[in-house]
Amino acid sequence: MSLPNNLMTTAPPPATVGPDMKNLKARARDAAALLIVTLYVLPIVWWGISAFTPADVLLDLPRLLRLDFSFTLSNFALVIMGVEGTIFDSRQSLIDSSVVALLSTGIVLVAALPLAYALSQMTFRWQRGLRNTVILQRFMPPIAIVFPLVGLYHTLGILDTRIGVALAHAALNLPFAVLLLKSFLDDVPHEVTEAARLDGASRFEGFRHVILPMMKGGIAATAILCFIFSWTEFLLSLFLTQNLRLMPVQAGVLVMNMWGLISALTTTALVPAFIFVLFVQKHLVRGLTLGIYR
Length: 294
Hints:
This protein is mostly helical. The chain has a domain at about 90-250 and about 270-290: MetI-like (MetI-like fold, Orthogonal Bundle). The protein is about 70% helix and about 0% strand. The chain has 13 helices and no strands. The chain has helices at about 20-50, 60-65, 75-80, 90-120, 125-140, 145-155, 160-185, 190-200, 205-215, 215-230, 235-240, 260-280, 280-290. Helix 4 (about 90-120) packs across helix 10 (about 215-230). The longest helix has about 35 residues, at about 20-50.
């Protein structure tokens, strides 16, 4: 049975979005993105300007807003050469923070590369359990191991030493490095290692001469990220040192009362991390997502 033509209804045509509405949405999205970026970047830019500002201008807001002054490098000179009469030696802190970060990064790579290779390229009984243990350790907060470490370091006599702080940073960054290096090793075809074995190479020789050259970029990205994490680590350094010498350079803001020097010190601390991020920006997303995103 068919309905009369005057009673038959047809569905309304789908609503279409005109080009003006699309342009409006795109402009709104761009404006929101620009606002968010400005909110994040503006304090850093203002901090950098303050680092080049003379001390007598920092408290003169009208001159500061008009940029009515000559930029100076005296704040950076004092930070690099050290400031006399303060309990915080910025120059020594820069040296010690660099040594600790380099030691920590070296220890992490030496320990993480074999473990990541075993988890990625080998098959053994407790492989899944070991991998889950590494993942769980990655999510362990630093405060959970601080107090046992203090007692252990006091017994071993390495409290308030560079190697002690470097070992603590390495223990904190090791799970991250293992998971990240494993993600790079997973990209290496198993046929490559099998071909090396057929040519008479041992497993170690295949790892050294075949796999390592293929993942130089991944190793560099892991090393730089571990360096940055050690460079900015504050909590472990706070508990494992008895003075401010081995604390990150950013700790100077806690004891320095000169705004120009504080700005110069924190700007100096940001420069290495910023430069290193530029080198590994291609691998940064993979590193921050523990290798999940490729």
